[in-house]
Predict the structure.
Amino acid sequence: MFIDRNSKVMVLTGAGISAESGLKTFREPGGMWDTYDWRELATPAAFEKSPEKVWEFYMERRRQIRDAQPNEAHKALVRLEKHMNPGRFLLVSQNVDDLHERAGQKNIIKIHGSAMRDICASCGSVLDSADSYNEFPPRHACGGLLRPDVVWFGEPLNSRDLKTAMDWLLSCDYFIVIGTSGNVFPVAQFVYQTEATKIYIGLEEPENSRGFQQVKLGKAGIVLPELIEELCEV
Ligand code: OAD
């Protein structure tokens, strides 16, 4: 199978693509939500109750993300983007790490936000993350509490990002999904909202596997570069 440079390719990634960089996934044994209670760490109510506790969790995640490096799967997606003509590739990532960007990915939507940015809970200003803060929990210059710029459970996705994703789902020729368990909505529904050729790569069948024409089981760092070599004939 060869991808014409002028066809449209939409890629969706989840935590599995960063696993080989040493970052934990969420729902596997030993994963983030197997070890920690998301209700205590990833909801607006948790932040209201104990911003210190939520911040400690995200400060540790930031340290882990900073220590991690993009792997062969991240790099393969950059090759795919470069292969496509301008405007014919979109990556939607659920990951709040910055490994796609550090690998050199350009057209990317971070649909669950970024753990590497802060947002003021009061005025909405967005700032690059800091390594340390003068006060804890940190505050913005306006006096409001800062929080990590991630989408927590119970919060809506950014409507502009969602609209862009929907437009691409309706018009893309290929929908390639990597390393996501297909548990979190609305993203888990994307596969049912496109007529594209749909391919999944991951260690195990996702919850929404019946939506895909092809499910390729294996590590993203091995299976994805092989697929992209085949698709791009490079
Ligand atoms: P999950 O932890 O639910 O799923 C990760 C998937 O990656 C699993 O299906 C694994 O089998 C697969 N996997 C693990 N290692 C892999 C590897 N080396 N190569 C390929 N696949 C591998 O993570 P997500 O689906 O990304 O939200 O979770 C979705 C959202 O739930 C996250 O964005 C996060 C979480 O709550 C926020 O942080 C806002």
Residues 14-16, 19-20, 25-28, 31, 94, 96, 112, 150-151, 179-181, 183-184, 202-204, 206, 219-220 surround 2'-O-acetyl adenosine-5-diphosphoribose (CB under 6 Å). The first helix runs from residue 32 to 35. Residues 24 and 78 are 22 Å apart (CA to CA).
